[in-house]
Amino acid sequence: MSMTTIPDIVVGRLPIYLRALNFLAAEGREITSSQELGDRLGISSAQIRKDLSHFGEFGKQGTGYDIAFLREQLQRILQIDRTWEVALVGAGDLGHALAHYGGFTGRGFTIVAVFDNDPNKVGQPLAHLMIQDSSHLGNIVRQQGIRVAIIATPANGAQSTADILVNSGVKAILNYAPITLTVPHGVRVQYIDPVAHLQRMTFYL
User: Which among 93, 65, 64, 86 is positioned nearest to 153, based on CA atoms?
Assistant: First the structure.
């Protein structure tokens, strides 16, 4: 089945299934069921079986899923059975937190370059990297063949940053700036806006 015929909402649940499988594997488990995964995640077992059926047959009726095999398959489907190099743009408080965050390693991603346009930050160490001048962003991304980037700049610099990234070959952007980006067809953008998420929750308080 081609990627385009699979609903994005289904693709969005695959990393959640993978995370649950990682926890089960860490507990020393070898077999699980759609029922158990569903109970852990608050998703119906029927939904899990339907989601996975888009990509093939992974379980056996009556015996469930082999955890190691299913993990491997989900990593392959999500293309994280390899490590993607990531450019991080913005070395403020959020950029610092992301650069020091250990959760990328071993899960398909590694930050290989950090950029900022503040002369006081350029040349300073950040985690295991050196902050580079944003004016070199396009060249370095192109030279290193980087396809994935994180934008952690203020809102007013995010669109111009996205333009440079896209023109340099980036196809996937995780955007923390509180602004909707305009990108060409074929470039994926995911938005993380903590304030928007908080505002969504306070509606229910």
Answer: 93
The length of the chain, given as a count of residues: 205
Say yes or no: 65 and 89 in one domain. no
117 sits in the region (left: phi over 0; alpha: psi -120 to 50; else beta) called alpha
Residue-wise pLDDT for 35-94, tens only, equals 999 999 999 999 999 999 999 888 776 679 999 999 999 999 999 999 999 999 999 999
Whether residue 179 sits in one domain with residue 160: yes
Domain containing residue 11 = 3-77
CB environment 184-199: b (16+ within 10 A), e (fewer): eeeeeeeeeeeeeeee
| Residue from 94, 9, 89 nearest 43 by CA | 9
Kindly state the tokens that stand for 93. Answer: 């408080």
Query: What sign results for the dihedral spanned by CA atoms 33, 35, 38, 40?
Result: negative
What is the distance between the alpha carbons of residues 34 and 22, in angstroms, rounded to a whole number?
15
Whether 205 maps to a domain, the answer reads: no
What are the φ and ψ backbone dihedral angles of 180, each rounded to 5 degrees? -85, 125
188 & 110 share domain: yes
> What average pLDDT does the chain have?
94
Let me know whether 96 and 157 are in one domain: yes
| Last residue within a domain, chosen from 44, 77, 110 | 77
Say how many CA atoms lie within 13 Å of 172 toward its Cβ. Answer: 10
Domain stop point among 77, 104, 131: 77
